[in-house]
Amino acid sequence: MTLEIYFDYFILPLLTLSIILVFFRLLKGPHVVDRVVALDLIITIGIGIITVFTIRSNQKVLLDVAIILALIAFLGTVAFSYYIEKRNDE
Amino acid sequence: MSDIIIAIISTIGALSIFFAALGILRMPDFYLRLSVTVKASTLGVGLLLLCAAIIFPDISVTTKAIAIIFFLFITSPIAAHMIGRASYFSNTPLWKGTIIDELEGMYNKKTHKLESDPEKADSPKGPEEDNIADTEEETK
């Protein structure tokens, strides 16, 4: 078994299954903070999928997208928590 | 030889991401979900990026991968702490089986400051209005 087959038939399906599981929490989440954390986790798993896809397709440029996604995930979570904390005061 | 190392590292990474996803679906309470998610997913993505850094014999990919790992390791605890704090202020209930909530009454609800003395925090709470949920359904 080569590494390519292993990445295609084990790693990528496992990551996809993880995204589906987190998506259930995003739909279900009883509070808004659950949804924020689920969104953050989906973006983080997305970075992992981009990395595996970079390895499989030999396109190094795609790692730049992963950097941008990491930035956006952090900014999004911080903004959400800031406004949730503010909203509670009123 | 390096194929075996890459296979082992990527397996650990993908499995820990999978356990993070399982944990966010199955844990009974927001705070437990947060605690499972952040650590496991950071470890998993870090290991997958390490795989990319090993596979490509190129200095630019290694630099980018290490930059992303460094950035994730710095930012994800900060984001988790901020969202946990916001959820505690917005009265997200704790799990029904929680034994003790040591933060209870320690936060000043007006200035959002943490006091070490509950008298100074000035947020009086009766014993019946704690944050711990009464039923399983509240936190599910």
TrEMBL record, chain A:
InterPro entries associated with the record: MrpF/PhaF-like
GO cellular component: plasma membrane
Pfam families: MrpF_PhaF
A GO molecular-function annotation: sodium:proton antiporter activity
Transmembrane residue ranges: 6-24, 36-55, 61-84
Subcellular location: Cell membrane
Membrane topology: Multi-pass membrane protein
Location (main, coarse): membrane
Keywords: Antiport, Cell membrane, Ion transport, Membrane, Transmembrane, Transmembrane helix, Transport
Similarity section: Belongs to the CPA3 antiporters (TC 2.A.63) subunit F family.
Name listed for the protein in its UniProt record: Cation:proton antiporter
Organism: Sphingobacterium alkalisoli
UniProtKB/TrEMBL annotation, chain B:
GO MF, one example: sodium:proton antiporter activity
Biased composition (Acidic residues): 129-140
Pfam family, one: PhaG_MnhG_YufB
Residues annotated as transmembrane: 6-25, 37-59, 65-84
InterPro entries (alphabetical): PhaG_MnhG_YufB (IPR005133)
Sequence ranges of Basic and acidic residues compositional bias: 113-128
Keyword Transmembrane helix listed: yes
Record carries keyword Transmembrane: yes
Key words, A-Z: Membrane, Transmembrane, Transmembrane helix
Segments of this protein annotated with the region Disordered: 111-140
NCBIfam families xrefs: CPA3_mnhG_phaG, PRK12674.1-2
Name recorded for this polypeptide: Monovalent cation/H(+) antiporter subunit G
